[in-house]
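Quick illustration, no need to memorize.
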Amino acid sequence: MTGGIADYESHDAVGLAEKVRKGEVTPGALLEAAIARVEARDGALNAVVVRIFEQARRSAAAALPDGPLRGVPFLIKDLHAPIAGVRMTNGSKLFEDLVPDHDSELVARYRRAGLVLFGRSASPELGVTTSTESALFGATRNPWSTAHSAGGSSGGAAAAVAAGMLPAAHASDGGGSIRIPASCCGLFGLKPTRARNPSGPDVGEGWSGMGVAHAITRSVRDSALLLDATQGPDLGAPYCAPAPERPYLEEVHRDPGRLRVAVQTESWNGVATHRDCAEAVRDAAQLCASLGHEVRPARLRIDPNALGRATQIVIAANLRAEVLDRAAALGRALRPDDIEPGTRALVEAARTLEAADYARAIVSMHAVGRKVARFFLDCDVLLTPTLPVPPPLLGRLALSNTDLERLIEDITATVGFTQLFNATGNPAMSVPLHWNAEGLPIGVQFAGRFGDEATLLRLAGQLEAARPWFERRPPPT
C-alpha cells in the first residue's frame, strides 16, 4: 500500500512538495499513495465522505500551477467550502444533493498553491456540534481509539491526517472546530485571526465573524505555508486582518524571544477542567519555562452568561437563515426530518428572537473582544487546555440525541476554552504536547493578540523542536 512512494508518511506537505520540485516523485504518485491509504484505512474511521479520485487523477496528470505545494494531495471539509461540480452536503440531509457551480475563493487559492483536491472530509450537520457524527454519514472515529470522537466539526480532516492518509487538510473553526479535533487526534491546529483567510464569494463572514477557515496539520511549517498561500482579503471582503510583516513560513524558524506566558486552567463557562487537561497545561508551562519564557498564572475574567447567550443567538440566527434559505431554494417549506434534533432545537430557538436580540449579541461579543485585547497588554500569549475534558466517547455529542438539555450541556463542556477566541477573533492554536495514561491525545491551547499569528507560529516552532510529535502515530487501523 505504498502507491509508488514508500516513504510517503515520513514527509509533511512541505517535504512532499520538495520531492515533486526535485523530480523525485510525481504528483500522480503522491495522489495514488493518498488514495491507497484512504481505501485501506477509512473503512474503520469514516473520515472521507465525498471522493473525487478520478477528477483528482486528471488534475495530477495535467499541468498543475507551479505553487509552493504543487502535487500535494489535499482534502476539503464538507462544510461551506464550494468546489465546482463536487457535492457539498454540509453534513446534512437537507443539503445532500447540493452541487456548487463554482469554487470558493479559499479553494481557488488552494488550487493556485498546486494542491491536488481528491475529496471531502466529514463534518457534523452544519458544523453545529464538536463531534463529527451525522445522520447522513454516521460517526467519524478517532484513530487513537475508535470508541472515541475525533472531535468536530473538522473531525474528518483530523482523523484523516492522524491516520496518515495525508499530511494536512482543510478545516474551519466557529467555536473550536479546528483546535478541538486537532487536540483529540494529536495534531497541530491553528485558528487564524478573524478574516485572515477569505470567506467569499458567497458570504462576507461565517457566523457573524466567529467562523474562520484554515487547516489541521501534522507539522507547524505546513500550517504556516498553507496560511501564506491563502491569507489576505478577497474582492469585496467587508473587512480584513492586519497584514503580516513577513511570510509565516519564516516565522516558524525565528526566535520568539522571551515571551510573557499567562496560564489559566479555569474555563470561562464554568465547566470543570479534567485532571488530565490541567496536567497537560502544567507540563506545557514547565516546558515554556525551560525554554526561557516568563510563565505566570493569570485569570482572564469574563461574564460567561453574557458570552454564552450572545454566541447562542448568533449561531441560532445564522442556522435558521441558512436552513430556511435552502428549503426555499428547493421550492418547499422546511420539513421536520430535514435536520437533526439538535440542529432543529437551535433553529426553533431563533424563531422567538427579535432583531434587537441579535444586535445586543453583537455588542456583547465586541465588548468581550475589547476586554481580551486589554488582557494581552500584559502578556504575549495565554496558555490553557484546548478542551476541559479528554476526547469524549462517540454518541454523547451527536445531534441525533433527543435529550436536548443534556446535549447542550455536553457541547458546552467541550468549548469552555475555545469559543471565546471565536467571539473575539484572536488567533489561537492547539499544540499536541501531552497524552494521558489511556494513550489519548490532550492538546493545549495558546492564544495571542488579534492579528499576531507570527508570535504563535514562532512559539509553535520552538515547542515542536523541543518536543517533536511528528513521529507519534496512532496504532494501525
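The CA atoms of residues 178 and 189 lie 6 Å apart.
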